[in-house]
Design brief:
By secondary structure, the protein is mainly α. The chain has one domain. The chain has 5 helices and no strands. Helix 2 crosses helix 5 and helix 4 packs across helix 5. The chain starts with a helix and ends with a helix. About 10% of the residues have low confidence.
């Protein structure tokens, strides 16, 4: 009985962390590194104040994984970051994991 309880908890934890199909296989470590290296949080703080987290989930704007990836691509283009498509996806996947949690 105890074994079943542990397995159930592990299975539920995996389901809770499931990401959108768009982000399957994305390199989360790379995405986190790109966010840190490019000082994304500092830019968000300049734009919205506070700790910068208010930029996530603006009223009705980012409501799908595709739109989230598009917003990361917009930052890539506007700021001339030079991210390759898989890097844009990696950054979006980290944002999904940490802020949006799309299914």
């Amino acid at each position: 009985m105890r074994k079943w309880g542990v397995c159930s908890v592990l299975l539920l934890a995996q389901v809770a962390w499931a990401q959108s199909a768009l982000f399957k296989g994305a390199d989360l470590e790379l995405g986190a590194k790109l966010i840190a290296d490019n000082k994304c949080q500092a830019c968000h703080i300049r734009r919205v104040g506070g700790d910068g987290s208010a930029i996530y989930r603006p009223q009705g704007r980012i409501n799908t994984p595709g739109y989230l990836r598009g917003m990361v691509e917009q930052c890539n283009t506007e700021l001339n970051l030079g991210f390759f498509p898989e890097e844009v996806t990696a950054v979006a996947a980290v944002l999904d994991r940490d802020h949006y949690k799309f299914k």
